[in-house]
Each structure stands twice: as C-alpha cells, then as structure tokens.
Write a structure and sequence with these properties.
The chain has 14 helices and no strands. The protein is mainly α and 241 residues long. The chain has two domains: 129 residues, no CATH class; 94 residues, no CATH class. Helix 3 packs across helix 4 and helix 12 packs antiparallel against helix 14. It starts with a helix and ends with a helix.
C-alpha cells in the first residue's frame, strides 16, 4: 500500500521514480502513510475518550477500567501513548479535543516529529535549503503548462532538465546556461541571476514584496501564489533552443 501511495504522489508531481520517498512527501506536503493512518486513528481515539455516550465510548471506558484489558489493548492504549508523545510538541492540549477539530494540531505535531528525522538524514541537501521543516503545505493545483509544472516540481527535489543537472549524468552535455551567460545553469542562476529572464524575475520579486515574502528560493518554490509566475520564467528556459 505504501508503494502505491508514494507512486501516486510521484506521478502527481511528475518526478522520476528514483526520487527519494521523503523528498516526495515533503514536496507534496503530505505525511508518510503510517503517520496519515495514525492521525485518523487518533481522531477515533479522541471521539471515544471525549465524545458523547456512544457504544464506542462505552467500549473505551470498559477497556480503560480493566487493567488486564488495557494492558492487552491493541488500539486505545497505543493511541494514548502516541498522543502523549505528540502532545509535548504543540502548544495546545491534544487530549482536550473530541472530534476532527484535532486533526490540524495532530498533523502539526507529527510534522515537528518528522522534521527532526528529516534533518538527521544526510541527503537531499538542496531540498532542505527550501524546506526548513516538514510541513503540510498544500500545493497550488493550477498549472500554466504540463511541462512547466513538471519542472516546477522536479527542480525542488534536485531533479529536472537544467544543463548543470543533466551534466552530472551525461558529461557530454554542456553545463552552462543555454542563453550563453557563461555561468553554470543552476537553479540559483536562473531564478536569481540570469539577465535573460530579468522581466520574469522582476515580476516575481514584485509579487514577493506585495505578499511580504523574501525573494529567496524557498518562497519561489513553496508559496502557492507565485506558482504561475515561476512557471512563466521556467517556460523561457524550456522554449529556448
């Protein structure tokens, strides 16, 4: 199931199959499958613990009152232990919720926990420049063209068809900018320095100013309000022979 889950996310982004699973999840703003399922389970636990007097709550109370049954519990006790662990990571009391209103805070706590794991991994250094922490940020579903959207998602995960990236796999490819700048065609170059896309870059800078965002790569690739403007700049590179 996890293979299918990750595979679908990679298809949504249009990234190669070999892209790191964690990088794919971070780019999509999604939790790993086990965390996502655990989040839903915790919602049910809170409904049983704090919700109205239903059969589910009665079952929880009976199990909690019996030490042996509680020790052998395969749902309520593990859920309580997980929620206790997550509760230390956020500024609200997760045990005070009784319905789906807890989902935002549970996901936030899980993201904090995942962030620690994310930065302990010695990989995906470029993606980590953009994403300072794991977060559930929803992507902008709009697209300018299919190919520009593919580039928009491939570059943040360290993939794509920039000359400098392709040169790593195919040394015969010239790593320099296709516009003839003489500089290596890197993500930093095309978005921050290349003089041939000054018009598109200036427009993105103005948008960043209006949105009170710094003009840096993390804003460029993460802020959903910038997506179409970023794709317009990418199209200049894509269409230049």
């Amino acid at each position: 199931m996890n293979k299918l889950y990750i595979g679908l996310l990679k298809k949504i982004l249009g990234v190669p199959k070999g892209t790191s699973n964690h990088v794919t999840l971070v780019r999509c703003g999604e939790l790993p499958l086990d965390y996502a399922l655990a989040c839903n389970a915790l919602i049910w636990y809170l409904k049983a613990r704090n919700g109205p007097n239903t059969l589910l709550r009665s079952y929880y109370l009976n199990e909690k009152a019996d030490d042996l049954r509680w020790a052998l519990s395969i749902f309520f006790r593990p859920a309580e232990e997980l929620l206790t662990r997550l509760n230390d990571l956020v500024e609200v009391d997760l045990f005070s919720f009784k319905d789906t209103s807890a989902k935002f805070w549970i996901r936030k706590a899980m993201c904090w926990e995942l962030s620690d794991m994310w930065f302990r991994e010695n990989m995906s250094h470029f993606t980590k420049r953009l994403y300072k922490r794991w977060s559930c940020i929803k992507l902008n579903p709009l697209m300018l063209t299919k190919i520009s959207t593919t580039w928009y998602h491939q570059l943040p995960v360290g993939r794509g068809y920039l000359n400098s990236i392709q040169h790593k796999y195919y040394p015969s490819i010239d790593p320099h900018c296709r516009f003839g700048c003489g500089c290596d065609e890197t993500v930093d170059h095309i978005f921050l320095r290349c003089p041939f896309v000054d018009t598109e870059r200036l427009y993105i800078q103005k948008l960043c100013t209006s949105l009170d965002l710094p003009f840096i790569l993390s804003s460029i690739f993460i802020a959903p309000e910038l997506k179409l403007s970023v794709e317009r700049l990418l199209l200049r590179f894509i269409r230049h022979n």
